[in-house]
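Table S2 (text version). Query chain:
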Amino acid sequence: TMSPNSSLLSFEKLDRASPDLWPEQLPGVAEFAASCKNPITNSPPKWMAELESEDIEMLKELGSLTTANLMEKVKGLQNLAYQLGLEESREMTRGKFLNILERPKK
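Corresponding structure-token output:
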């Protein structure tokens, strides 16, 4: 008898080289990965030139975090973005009410 899970097996091979099936999720990631593979270059990568010292410090800080700490940091940023969204929404609503109360300009 066939086990219930054997009917779910797929023998299809997915070619990860296909840019259509696996588009680059974040622009610049492939370039960054390539630059990490051959670090023996004299000039720093293009993206490094645009960084300020604050950015570099932040990168070092993030790079030193454990996975758990990094996840906490990301959650914190998501919460902050959510709070900012709520605040913006409130301000927009308030603006609409204020516009309604203003006398129309002649």
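Notes on Table S2: The first helix runs from residue 29 to 37. The two ends are 84 Å apart (CA to CA).
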